[in-house]
Amino acid sequence: MTPSDLPPALVADRPAAADRAFVTLVTNAAYLPGALALLRSLRLTGTGADLAVMHRRLDAAQQDQLRALGARLIRAELLDTSEAFDVAHARDALHARAAFLRGAKPDFHTPLDNFVKLRLWQLDYARCVFIDADALVLRPVDRLFDFPEFCAAPNVYDGLDGFGRMNSGVFTARPDPATFAAMMAHLDRPGVFWRRTDQTFLQDFFPDWQGLSIHHNLLQYVWTHMPALWDWGQIRILHFQYEKPWEDHAKVPALRPLIDLWRHVAAGGTMPDLMALPAPPVPA
User: Fold this and answer.
1) What is the pLDDT of residues 224-261, one digit of tens each?
2) What pLDDT was estimated at residue 202?
3) Is the peptide bond before 85 cis (omega within 30 degrees of 0)?
4) 81 neighbors 115 (Cβ within 8 angstroms)
5) What is the pLDDT of the chain when averaged over all its residues?
6) DSSP notation for 2-53
7) N or C: at which end does the chain have fewer Cβ atoms within 10 angstroms?
8) What CATH code is carried by the domain that includes residue 99?
9) Is 74 exposed, middle or buried, given 0-12, 13-18 or 19+ CB atoms closer than 10 A?
């Protein structure tokens, strides 16, 4: 395919170089540090898949930073949703109705942008693995391309109840215009409200989602909340949900080893010996 084969809402800077792609989404420049670190970590795994970045609100210089790491850039528009849907899922309205109580969402988080992730099903690839831009790949994960649609890890970070919910920070997908059309028909209906935006929607749309191990999307709070689940020998993708490792935030001291790892890779370092990294503190 060529860039012109994509629908008008997606504009790529070059044709796809492979039929498989790791895909991330950068909705504004505040996520750029995360996306750059993610791309560096994927390159360190030796993957031969395309690295595709769907993006919004990035200037030419910022796009060039991603392109320098081998990314295929795809400008993506917001979904064509109704005014009522947009009002219900605007930042202030969503946070007032479904506040985040277990962690702090950064100021640059915009809930409506999250739904742009669904445009992955419009891409010109046979198979995709989506990874959020605030994640770091620690070991090769190309085998995920051979997993079925739709696989995701559970949303486990502070209690066993998380095993009943999925986290949309990592998932497998098979782009298909028919699937995207079905998604749009299911997404925007009178009175609908997706409490955790794309994550709640995807779990509802794929009720038979298949669970990846938590090690394919290990959430950073496991370090402090559920340290018995932490195993450097198994972790493949580390996900910095809520507070970001490129920010100065109140949880930096508690998460210091994880943040140091992220900053090492973000600065261009090679992947360290993970087994030499410290274990999480044991609760008193």
Assistant:
1) 999 999 999 999 999 999 999 999 999 999 999 999 99
2) 98
3) no
4) yes
5) 93
6) -GGGS-TTEEESS--SSSEEEEEEE-SGGGHHHHHHHHHHHHHTT--SEEEE
7) C
8) 3.90.550.10
9) buried
In a domain, 76, yes or no: yes
Domain with 21, as residue range(s), is 3-219+235-242
Q: Which residues of the chain have pLDDT under 70?
A: 1-4, 93, 95-109, 284
Question: pLDDT digits over 64-102, tens only?
Answer: 999 999 999 999 999 999 999 998 988 776 766 655 445
Question: Quick check: pTM over 0.90?
Answer: yes
E strands present in 56-207: 72-76, 127-131, 135-137, 151-154, 166-173
Q: Which pLDDT score, from 0 to 100, does residue 1 have?
A: 43
Q: How many structural domains are present in the chain? A: 1
pLDDT (0 to 100) of residue 196: 86
Q: Residue 253 falls within a domain, yes or no?
A: no
Q: Give the pair of three-digit tokens for residue 34.
A: 């995360």
- pLDDT computed for residue 110 by the predictor: 78
* Contact indicator for 90, 111 with CB cutoff of 8 Å: yes
- 254 within domain boundaries: no
Could you tell me where the beta strands, DSSP code E, fall in the chain? 10-12, 20-26, 50-55, 72-76, 127-131, 135-137, 151-154, 166-173, 210-211, 218-219, 237-239
Judge contact between 243 and 251, C-beta under 8 A.
yes
What is the chain's length? 284
Q: How far is CA 44 from CA 88, 137, 143, 272, in A?
A: 41, 9, 16, 11
Q: Is residue 250 part of a domain?
A: no
**CB 102 within 8 Å of CB 158:** yes
What residues contact residue 114 under an 8 Å CB cut-off, 6+ apart?
Answer: 27, 197, 198, 199
